[in-house]
């Protein structure tokens, strides 16, 4: 079973690239972020043509998440996180596929910091931790994957100095991410690449892609029941270099059945 995550940065603008990636790599499940479309504009028919069924949680012009499954319909469990009823941003979607609980997330960026956006980011991370605590207590195979907008360590960026003031690297952001790992979740990519140096994002500006000035903010966290089944993981880096690509590359984990 292969579970992937891809911040597509606008599903309508990147649809050809997305369909290309799905056709070439055929993940069992693909979690998408930043679909940037309202629910009624989601192009589910295009995915059905290549064998994928979808559920989605959209928002006009911003955010938005979706879960695609190859040959089966994801069974939706939850959309959105508890703890802040007035929060209308579309950033969390949870489903069941082939006996695995899958949560696709798009965590707030938090810039500029300090300020209200950074405060919202930290509150959102606490709400995410509460839901992940509930999932872990179920003792089921589960994965929480997507764009976390957190660079966990200095080994996860080409130059720590370049982003030192960014919300993605603040001690509060890193501490909140680290608490998830201390709760018993496994960072799949970090577990297979302990020395770091793996990027999932390259900015469109300043020749970041051409100079390989990237960092890792897309993660896949596995519950103990799923971590035991981890066979391989990786980043489909070449897809970042294609014409009109997203600024993120897809990540994936391969699991024993």
TrEMBL record:
Residues recorded as binding Mg(2+), renumbered to this chain, are: 7, 34, 147, 149, 247-248
Residues at the site labelled Interaction with DNA substrate: 248
Cofactor binding annotation: Probably binds two magnesium or manganese ions per subunit.
Pfam families on file: Exo_endo_phos
**Annotated InterPro entries:** AP_endonuc_1 (IPR004808), Endo/exonu/phosph_ase_sf (IPR036691), Endo/exonuclease/phosphatase (IPR005135), ExoIII-like (IPR037493)
**Keywords of the record:** Hydrolase, Magnesium, Manganese, Metal-binding
Molecular function per GO: double-stranded DNA 3'-5' DNA exonuclease activity; metal ion binding
UniProt KW Metal-binding keyword: yes
Family annotation (Gene3D superfamilies) = Endonuclease/exonuclease/phosphatase
Gene Ontology terms: biological process: DNA repair
Q: Which cofactor does it need?
A: Mg(2+); Mn(2+)
> Location of site Transition state stabilizer?
149
EC number(s)?
Answer: 3.1.11.2
Q: Does the keyword Zinc apply?
A: no
Q: Where is the Endonuclease/exonuclease/phosphatase domain?
A: 4-248
UniProt record similarity statement: Belongs to the DNA repair enzymes AP/ExoA family.
* Identification of the protein by name: Exodeoxyribonuclease III
């Amino acid at each position: 079973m292969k579970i992937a995550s891809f911040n597509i940065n606008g599903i309508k603008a990147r649809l050809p690239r997305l369909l290309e990636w799905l056709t070439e790599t055929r993940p069992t499940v693909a979690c998408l972020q930043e679909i940037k479309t309202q629910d009624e504009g989601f192009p589910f028919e295009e995915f059905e043509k290549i064998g994928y069924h979808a559920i989605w949680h959209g928002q006009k012009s911003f955010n938005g998440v979706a879960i695609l499954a190859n040959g089966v319909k994801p069974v939706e469990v939850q959309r959105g996180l508890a703890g802040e009823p007035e929060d209308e941003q579309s950033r969390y979607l949870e489903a069941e596929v082939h006996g695995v609980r899958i949560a696709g997330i798009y965590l707030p960026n938090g810039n500029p910091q300090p300020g209200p956006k950074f405060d919202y980011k930290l509150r959102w991370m606490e709400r995410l931790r509460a839901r992940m605590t509930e999932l872990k207590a179920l003792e089921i195979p589960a994965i929480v994957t997507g764009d976390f907008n957190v660079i966990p360590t200095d080994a996860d960026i080409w130059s720590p100095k370049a982003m030192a003031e960014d919300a993605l690297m603040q001690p509060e952001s890193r501490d909140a991410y680290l608490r998830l790992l201390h709760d018993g979740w496994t960072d799949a990519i970090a577990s297979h690449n302990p020395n770091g140096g793996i990027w999932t994002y390259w900015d469109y500006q300043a020749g970041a892609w051409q100079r390989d000035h990237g960092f890792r903010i897309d993660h896949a966290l596995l519950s103990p029941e799923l971590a035991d089944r981890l066979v391989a993981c990786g980043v489909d880096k070449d897809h970042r270099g294609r014409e009109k690509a997203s600024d993120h590359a897809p990540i994936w984990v391969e699991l024993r059945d």
